[in-house]
Design goal:
By secondary structure, the protein is mainly β. Helix content is 0%, strand content 84%. The protein has strands at residues 3-17, 26-33, 37-45, 51-68, 72-80, 84-95, 99-115, 118-127, 132-144, 148-164, 167-176, 179-222, 226-268, 272-280, 284-304, 308-316, 320-350, 358-366, 370-400. The chain has a 19-stranded parallel sheet that branches.
């Protein structure tokens, strides 16, 4: 078996901190990146391969902290004043088995993991105007047997806090002024079980609690352009999926057993675009999917087994658009969808898990245009579904199973 595997990592500053043996209960981290960070991966396959794993990663500032059976206090400040770019260029004849191709660019990233005690995290992340965080890829193949995943990810600022059997208290301020862009161009003459996805998020916070209590006060401000785009072309395909997702500000908080409370203030003034374009010159089988999702501000709070609450404020001033297209010959099934939101918040709890409640104080303001469009062109098709949704403000709160 012939397997190609390449990983290319470019990072300006990496700090791996706080293992229990170091007794690093109190950590103060300060990082400033002034220059550009670039990772470029170029692979040419002339006679085919059985499997392929290709990864290009670029990071501006990175800090990770963890603690077990002891408190963790992390104060971190990250300032990016340069550009971060991750590129992949793959040109080959065929891949007989699984293939995974990834380009990932991140400006500032911080993570904290805790077991069994209390984590207190104070996070500040900033990117400068005139810079960019970009992942891009060009992938060309004659034959892909599959399954194949081509992925592009661009994130300006991201924070992740994970607690198990403990308590997490998180305070975070994220400000993005840079361009955040993920772009993929994929050309496959004959593809099988192929998924192409781009994700661009300017500010992101992920909170995860298992048998834990989660408390957070989060501020996100995005002034930069956020863009995710897929261009997928080919002749024939069997089960092809293209997904483009662009978010100005994103918060995802999921907790179980303990209570969860999230105060969130999100403001987006930048343009957000998500574009998924799929064009097949011949026929297709299975299901062909082209999907685009764009949102200015997004917040999700999910609780299982206790009460949850949020004070949520969202303001969008930027233009939000999502555009999905598909064209092909004769095929069996096609799903083409686009969705654009100025502001979106979702809060859920498991009501049948006990006598618990959901409290929400929600304020949303949208002054930006919101556009969603879907275009489908084909010769004949079995089941073809198209949808386009544009919503200025969306709020969903649910207590259920």
């Amino acid at each position: 078996m012939r397997t190609l595997k390449t990983t290319l990592l470019a990072t300006a500053a990496v700090a791996l901190l706080a293992t229990p043996a170091l007794a690093a209960e109190d950590i103060t981290n300060s990082q400033i990146q002034l220059g550009d960070v670039w990772s470029s991966l170029n692979v040419t396959v002339s006679d085919g391969s059985d499997q392929m794993v290709e990864t290009s990663v670029a990071i501006g500032n990175h800090v990770a902290a963890s603690a077990t059976n002891q408190d963790l206090n992390l104060t971190t400040t990250q300032d990016l004043q340069g550009s971060v770019d991750a590129d992949v260029l793959i040109n080959g004849s065929s891949v007989g088995g699984a293939a995974a191709i990834t380009a990932s660019a991140t400006g500032n990233t911080a993570t904290a993991e805790l077991c069994c005690e209390t984590a207190t995290v104070t996070n500040t992340q900033t990117t400068s105007a005139g810079e960019s965080i970009e992942s891009s890829g060009t992938v060309v193949f004659n034959q892909l047997v599959g399954p194949t995943a081509v992925t592009g990810i661009a994130t300006a600022n991201t924070l992740g806090v994970t607690a198990t059997n403990g308590v997490s208290n998180t305070t975070s301020t994220q400000t993005n002024n840079a361009v955040t862009e993920a772009y993929l161009s994929t050309s496959v003459v004959n593809g099988n079980d192929t998924t192409v996805s781009t994700t661009a998020v300017s500010n992101n916070v992920t909170l995860s609690g298992t048998a834990s209590t989660t408390n957070a006060s989060l501020v996100q401000n995005n002034l930069g352009y956020t863009h995710a785009q897929n261009d997928v072309v080919g002749q024939t395909a069997d089960d092809l999926t293209s997904v483009a997702t662009a978010s100005g500000n994103n918060i995802n908080a999921q907790n179980s057993t303990g209570t969860a409370w999230v105060d969130a203030a999100q403001a987006n003034a930048g343009t957000v675009q998500a574009q998924s374009y799929v064009a097949l010159s011949g026929n297709w089988s299975g299901t062909a999917t082209s999907s685009a999702y764009g949102v200015g501000n997004s917040m999700l709070l999910s609780e299982i087994g206790n009460s949850a609450g949020t004070n949520n404020t969202q303001s969008n001033y930027g233009s939000i658009s999502a555009d999905a297209t598909f064209s092909g010959g004769a095929g069996s099934a096609a799903i083409v969808s686009s969705a654009a939101f100025g502001n979106a918040v979702t809060g859920t709890i498991c009501a049948n898990c006990g006598n618990y409640g959901l409290t929400a104080n929600n304020t949303q303001y949208n002054a930006g245009g919101v556009v969603s469009s879907t275009t489908t062109t084909y010769t004949t098709g079995g089941v073809v579904t198209g949808s386009a949704s544009a919503v200025g403000n969306s709020a969903t709160f649910r207590a259920g199973n």
